[in-house]
Known about the structure:
- Helix content is 47%, strand content 13%.
- By secondary structure, the protein is α/β, with parallel strands linked by helices.
- The mean pLDDT is 97.
Amino acid sequence: MKNTEGMLKENSLKGKVVIVTGGGTGLGKSMSAYFLKLGASVVITSRNMEVLNNTASELEKEIGGCILPLSCDVRDEVQVENVLKQTVEKFGEFHVLVNNAAGNFASPTEKLSYKAFNTIVDIVLKGTSNFTLAAGKHWIAQKVGGTVLNIVTTYAFTGSGYVVPSACAKAGVLALTRSLAVEWAKYNIRSNAIAPGPFPTEGAWSRLLPGELTEQFNPVRRVPLGRVGELQELANLAAYLISDYSAYINGEVVVIDGGEWLKGAGQFNALENVPPKRWNELDKLRKKT
Ligand code: HXC
Ligand code: NAP
């Protein structure tokens, strides 16, 4: 058994229709691939139809199953409602919404224009609330349950400089997750979130650690386990959280980061840089005094 292997039993998601926003690339693509493998039908959306079509053909060829690519800017509620309409036309119903689409870049906050700040908040927070609201209204009206899985970040609860619009928006998504977990439980709608640490994707890393920053701030050095995440590890967690195996998990945010955020938080964690020899010397000094 390896961490790069699928974790759930065959057909664990059979009969489920899953919408994955930002499903054409990165984490969205790898989650979609695993959902398909587990028997789900998957709708992938983003703004770039060419990327979506390429991903859909690649996954259909590799895995088979049913994947529907639909163009949609999450900021536009009309386009969002249209995705749900086309999904219901094609599959009869949908059962899971994975809010994964995001926009981000690293910048000193004082250099941002108003538009730059709003763009990120619009994609991340409003995009997620648009899809969640549309899906929730539909599920409630149809009297069917549903599951929402939001992809946030660990700085949704710690905050972080240099990605401030994203931190504000992801914190909002986390509040949305926890609020609706309670309010919509009576409609049998579960809401959970995943907070990933560093998982290498072109979309995130090219924008957050451009140029020489990739090496200078190599995320591997911040992770106690000494490595970045494997895409399958995240896909395994996501598949579990949208499956019926996790039916009693509601309002949870699951961190999958190799211990990264806690390393930054623990007051004395930096003492790991003290070499073992120096600890022995310090011990002698302590005994002497
Ligand atoms: C400062 C910037 C900027 C940058 C854009 N802007 N990039 N400001 N630094 N690097 C400003 C623009 O100048 C403009 O403001 C405003 O933002 C909107 O830019 P547009 O290019 O017009 O917006 P749009 O075409 O909607 O593109 C959105 C985008 C783009 C976010 C800027 O990067 C994108 O499409 N991203 C999608 C994918 C993505 O970001 N993936 C990463 C997710 S990773 P002005 O005022 O000049 O007109 C993630 C990881 C979290 O979230 C944690 C990792 C550990
Ligand atoms: P990514 O490949 O850039 O994924 C972002 C996706 O969102 C893209 O497919 C993009 O497609 C789509 N998108 C952006 N703006 C959109 C809009 N307005 N409407 C619809 N779709 C839009 O990056 P990723 O690393 O896989 O990120 C996926 C998720 O994981 C994000 O929520 C991110 O915050 C989170 N995350 C990632 C990491 C990491 O280390 N990779 C860590 C923590 C959290 P288009 O641009 O074609 O529309």
